[in-house]
Amino acid sequence: MSAALFYVDALPGAGELAVVDGDEGFHASNVRRIRVGEHIDLSDGAGVLAHCVVEETAKGRLSARVTERLTVPAPRPTVTVVQALPKSERSELAVELATEAGADGFLAWQATRCVARWDGPKVDKGLRRWEAVARSAARQSRRAYVPGVEGVVSTTTLTQRVAAAVAGGAVVLALHESATEPLADLPLAQADSLMLIVGPEGGIADEEIVALTAAGAKAVRLGPTVLRTSTAAAVALGAIGALTARWAI
């Protein structure tokens, strides 16, 4: 079984002592009940990873000696998930599943057919919650990278972001049940970065898919079944992992 992973702001060098406190320390000592002598991994969430041995534990914190420090290469292509705002608990589920499947970043999208509406204080609250869920899911799946979270963007702003991404060499995929081109048929192996657009429960509106494809996005069909907005990104990330070198070991 792989070692438990926890996040710290900065990692010391090999042979030095790292302290895990705050929320991560509470999770390590009070929830996971990590004990002296156990092997754990620590990461800064930006690709630096340290293998450690726990030397001391206390309520809400622990200290561990770094035995090896390394930098984990970022996966290629990188994948940013543009997630239309799902309603209620499905919002957090979408971020959790996509993070576990390898999403490198999230952009929250207020699509036309979104039932959920983030405005005013709901924006900061929603983004903070997505950040917390992404961090927790990244820890659970032993990731050295914690996905970033941005938003909320309108369709107009998203269209501009798509055009800029395509101009920079990215491949932008918009999942759409009426698309005729299967995701599996796309030549993604040589792509350096991808943007994956997932619509809301009611699907991407016709005028939105027209605007997005005009900006350079490719409308693609994931498979023969219609998935919920909360699961579509995770399934697509699995397909992308198999179609590219992201999951190469």
From TrEMBL:
GO terms for biological process: rRNA base methylation. It comes from the Bacteria. One of its GO terms (molecular function) is rRNA (uridine-N3-)-methyltransferase activity. Its EC number is 2.1.1.193. It catalyses: uridine(1498) in 16S rRNA + S-adenosyl-L-methionine = N(3)-methyluridine(1498) in 16S rRNA + S-adenosyl-L-homocysteine + H(+). Its main location: cytoplasm. Residues 77-240 form the Ribosomal RNA small subunit methyltransferase E methyltransferase domain. Transmembrane segments: none annotated. GO terms for cellular component: cytoplasm. It is an enzyme of class 2 (transferase). Keywords: Cytoplasm, Methyltransferase, rRNA processing, S-adenosyl-L-methionine, Transferase. Belongs to the RNA methyltransferase RsmE family. This is Ribosomal RNA small subunit methyltransferase E.
